[in-house]
UniProtKB/TrEMBL annotation:
Protein name: histidine kinase
UniProt TPR repeat ranges: 180-213
Coiled-coil features, chain-numbered ranges: 316-350
Tree of life domain: Bacteria
Modified residues (4-aspartylphosphate): D650
Keywords, comma-separated and alphabetical: Coiled coil, Kinase, Membrane, Phosphoprotein, TPR repeat, Transferase, Transmembrane, Transmembrane helix
Annotated Histidine kinase domain residues: 357-577
Response regulatory domain location: 601-715
Protein's organism: Salegentibacter salarius
Transmembrane segments annotated in the record for this chain: 299-316
Keyword Transmembrane among UniProt keywords: yes
CDD domains: HATPase_EvgS-ArcB-TorS-like (cd16922), HisKA (cd00082), REC_hyHK_CKI1_RcsC-like (cd17546)
A single GO molecular function term of this UniProt record: phosphorelay sensor kinase activity
Length: 725
């Protein structure tokens, strides 16, 4: 959408008072967004101008119709009228009128996908004419519209010079309509370039100007973009208020009966056309009557023909009326569906953003709880509290699992989950899962047995995180629904095809089992088996997540169970064998000591003091020397003045965040390994993390052994990458 030019104020008045009066009335209606009356009077002006053969007013009539239909999103009619006006103005040889039609054609083409440059070309024609006529104020509208076009194309750097030029052209002008729309564009520009204070200023100032002069359209546009910015800042209450204003202004522009009124105006024009045709028909009829009078036979023929013609006209008229009614109903339904879709998309986006924010806010303190509990468990002086500490750590791990389940289901509903292909060790993965459920196993007095086929390649390529989630849910259910029993985990090689291994996974228990009638239900979201028993409460998301994740692997879950006799869950995955010579995650401690005798100085960058303590103590247990920085600026200073073998970098910090801090460190140190330490969902920021120069990612809260593995892997890689003296 661009600024429109309604009339030429500098043209000398025409002597036909009635046409001039119609022009003024039409201009007033369109300025006040009264499109029904504006269209009706534009058609009346066109009819009178055609009767008088006055091209000047025919130009204005078509220009007004183009503006009205453009505002109502009827671009085919708008373009048709603008092109007719352009054809007329060439005959008038009036450069000032040419300025207006070029600008309005620019508005049409700049909104058509693929025709944006054609629209900009028309705007530049306006600027050229304004320069040749020496009327600089006429350059404002096309300059703003060029900026608007680039903004819609998300070419913000190209839009900015035109925004600045527009501000200069507006100096000294009392044009709140243009100023409020320009401020809206400036607010949107600063919002998209993350200069939120400037965006706030222009949005609020533009809205004041629009509301001061009752400029409904600019006010509506500003409220919509301002709300989007407030949502991104997390100011949801203010955002909703801005959206309510937007809905209010939008309703004033397009009430439900507005389209019906416009159809009535179009019908009125059709009737006038019909009347003119009828007058012509009467003249022709008089001539035919003279001929018919000469012969009775001819009279009878003409009567019959006339009756047939009338019947056809009545039928066509009825069809046309029904068609208009259906089109109107279809438009209303389409508008309702579009509104419903937009609202659903908005709510889905809000839900996703809310869950992502909540997960980060919950994971950060959980990191402190899990970390401190792990450290205290290793403290021999607290042996008498070992049971309590294990309960504490289990509760924190259980809460983390619930958070992960809810987020995982939300991501899968939004089609945001994509599999990765990275090297991993199948034995380490299974052992890590067995250790995770040690507390629950002891609590329910179970025994866990596991077997890993020796023929399976140790190192495979796939998505270990998603595979862990599948096995964690299956093993977790087996341990939870079994008491004084056994849980069997079996991993076997089914087949080898070229460089891929087909691996069979099985989790079996002798617990309560699942009745036949419930075996399909348990794979549906939020379903629970025996929900009346408190011991078996949960979210009901585990098995639905397993089912959906296996679908991503092009596999499926199989179940065999009998009530009271236990359950067996199994599936198969085709995984690529990793034949590269590089080291995988999980280096032996001896390898680490051989390669990294002096590489033990680590910089921990985190603004949370509890997390600093946890991370430092975990590292110091492995005899690492730890230096702590509380923010990005301090981290840059320490990294430039001291030598570190590795940097652990938190992402969310006040001032400059972890990614920006890493980019600045990379300007003077390209070799030190930098590992992201974050509670954010890594799928959302993985590409940004690696693009900033970071080498690896640790998600808080983490398994301590997995933490050590990633640290050692990156320290080893750092030693190999340091240039030899």
């Amino acid at each position: 959408m661009g600024l429109n030019l309604l009339s030429a104020q500098s043209i000398e008045p025409v002597s036909k008072d009635s046409l001039e009066h119609l022009t003024e009335i039409t201009t007033e209606y369109l300025t006040k967004y009264n499109y029904k009356d504006g269209i009706e009077h534009a058609y009346i002006l066109l009819e009178h101008a055609e009767n008088l053969g006055d091209d000047y007013y025919k130009f204005h009539a078509h220009n007004y119709l183009g503006i009205a239909y453009h505002e109502l999103k009827d671009n085919p009619r708008a373009k048709s009228n603008y092109l007719k006006a352009l054809e007329i103005v060439h005959g008038l040889e009036n450069d000032t009128l040419l300025i207006y039609i070029y600008n309005n054609l620019g508005n049409i083409y700049s909104e058509e996908k693929g025709n944006e440059e054609k629209g900009i070309a028309y705007y530049n024609k306006v600027i050229g004419l304004a320069d040749s006529l020496k009327v600089p104020k006429e350059k404002l509208t096309p300059t703003v519209n060029i900026a608007w076009t680039y903004m819609d194309e998300k070419k913000y750097s190209q839009a900015y010079p035109y925004l600045n030029e527009s501000l200069k052209l507006l100096e000294g002008e009392q044009n709140n309509n243009a100023r409020s729309q320009l401020y809206m564009l400036l607010g949107k520009y600063h919002h998209k370039t993350n200069e939120l204070d400037s965006a706030e200023y222009y949005f609020t100032q533009g809205l004041k100007l629009a509301e001061k002069d009752s400029l409904i359209l600019p006010a509506s546009l500003i409220c919509k973009d301002y709300a989007a910015m407030l949502f991104e800042k997390g100011e949801f209450e203010a955002a909703y208020k801005s959206l309510e204003k937007y809905d209010s202004y939008n309703a004033q522009l397009f009430e439900k009966d507005k389209l019906a009124q416009i159809e009535a105006a179009n019908a009125l024009f059709d009737v006038n056309e019909y009347r003119r045709n009828l007058e012509i028909s009467k003249k022709e009829q008089a001539y035919q009557d003279e001929l018919i009078a000469k012969s009775t036979e001819k009279i009878l023929i003409m009567v019959v023909a006339s009756l047939i013609l009338i019947i056809i006209l009545l039928i066509l008229n009825k069809i046309n009326q029904d068609r208009k009614k259906l089109i109107h109903q279809l438009k209303e339904k389409n508008n309702q569906l579009r509104d419903s879709r937009d609202n659903a998309e908005r709510l889905s986006k809000l839900k996703t953003e809310f869950l992502s924010t909540v997960s980060h806010e919950l994971r950060t303190p959980l990191y402190g709880v899990v970390g401190l509990a792990s450290l205290l468990l290793d403290d021999k002086s607290l042996k008498k509290h070992e049971s309590d500490l294990k309960s504490l750590k289990f509760s924190a791990d259980y809460l983390l699992a619930l958070i992960n389940d809810v987020l995982q289901m939300n991501k899968m509903e939004s089609n945001q989950v994509k599999l990765e292909n990275i090297p991993f060790n199948i034995k380490e993965l299974v052992l890590s899962i067995v250790n995770t459920f040690e507390f629950t196993r002891l609590q329910n007095k179970n025994k866990v047995h596991y077997h890993i086929d020796e023929d399976i390649p140790v190192d495979l390529i796939g998505d270990p995180v998603r595979l862990s989630q599948i096995l964690m849910n299956l093993v977790g259910n087996a341990v939870k629904f079994t008491e004084n029993g056994n849980v069997f985990i079996s991993v076997k090689l089914q087949a080898r095809v070229e460089d891929r291994s087909v691996v069979y996974f099985e989790v079996k228990d002798d617990g309560i089992g699942i009745p036949k009638s419930k075996q399909k239900l348990i794979f549906e979201e939020f379903s629970q088996l025996k929900s009346s028993n408190y011991n078996y409460q949960g979210t009901g998301l585990g098995l639905p997540i397993v089912k959906r994740l296996l679908e991503l692997f092009d596999s499926q879950i199989h179940l065999k169970s009998k009530e009271g006799e236990g359950s067996l869950f199994c599936f198969s995955l085709s995984l690529k064998e990793d034949q590269s010579p590089t080291k995988k995650a999980g280096f032996a401690h001896e390898v680490y000591l051989d390669n990294l005798k002096e590489a033990q100085k680590i910089l921990v960058v985190d603004d949370n003091r509890i997390n600093q303590v946890v991370t430092r103590r975990i590292l110091e247990k492995q005899n690492f020397e730890c230096i702590v920085a509380s923010n990005g600026v301090e981290a840059i200073e320490k990294a430039s003045s001291e030598n570190f073998d590795l940097i652990l970098m938190d992402l969310n910090m006040p001032g400059i965040n972890g990614m920006e801090t890493t980019k600045r460190i990379r300007q003077f140190n390209k070799h030190v390994p930098v590992v992201a330490l974050t509670a954010v969902e890594i799928e959302e920021v993985r590409n940004e993390i690696h693009a900033s120069g970071m080498n690896d990612i640790i998600v808080k809260p983490y398994d301590v052994e997995r933490f050590y593995q990633i640290i050692k892997r990156n320290l080893s890689a750092g030693v190999e990458s340091v240039p030899k003296n």
